[in-house]
Design goal:
single chain; about 170 residues; alpha+beta; Yope Regulator, Chain: A; 6-stranded antiparallel sheet; elongated; disordered C terminus
């Protein structure tokens, strides 16, 4: 299989950024990204025949079945008004990811176009990661988590590292 123009553009951009990646079948790239709020896997799918490129950030936690309804609400609220991309969840295994993509029919993917979908994607995952974790592990409702995130109050969703650990009294 020969590399297509989308694959070559993506690979060139990743190399130019100094990103160490793996490839598969001249159709996809994968690497790990470290943002301000976590570390997560990313992958790119180059759909040469369809003239499309897709970029995914995968949340580093799987959602337990009991939490999927709350996370689905979180995703709906987070996606409302989103212009480029969106969160999605596999309801069977609980994988949550953010997807951005481009259709480059009748044009050529240039590095700036690709950079823009990557940066938007990484920003969204990094911004909403504390909210997702607060819904999963912090007892925060989806509406409060998204409201705090969109108001720039992410720190209110994160545990206080100086707070004493909770203890349980034994009877």
């Amino acid at each position: 299989m020969t590399m297509g123009p989308i694959f070559e553009t993506v690979g060139g951009w990743l190399e130019g950024q100094g990103i160490e990646y793996e490839t598969r079948d001249d159709q996809s790239f994968s690497f790990t990204y470290k943002g301000s709020n976590g570390l997560w896997p990313c992958f790119v799918i180059c759909r040469e025949e369809e003239q499309q490129v897709l970029f995914y950030s995968v949340a580093p936690v799987a959602v337990a079945e009991a939490s999927r309804v709350d996370v689905a609400e979180f995703i709906l609220r987070s996606n409302y008004g989103a212009v480029l991309g969106g969160f999605e969840m596999d309801v069977d295994d609980g994988e949550v990811r953010y997807r951005t993509g481009l259709d480059v029919s009748d044009t050529k993917l240039d590095p700036t176009m690709f950079r823009n979908i990557v940066l938007m994607n990484l920003l969204m995952m990094d911004t909403y990661m504390p909210a997702l974790l607060a819904v999963l592990h912090g007892g925060v409702t989806p509406s409060v988590a998204v409201e705090k995130t969109e108001a720039g109050q992410i720190s209110e969703l994160m545990p206080d590292p100086d707070a004493p650990a909770e203890t349980t009294a034994e009877a």
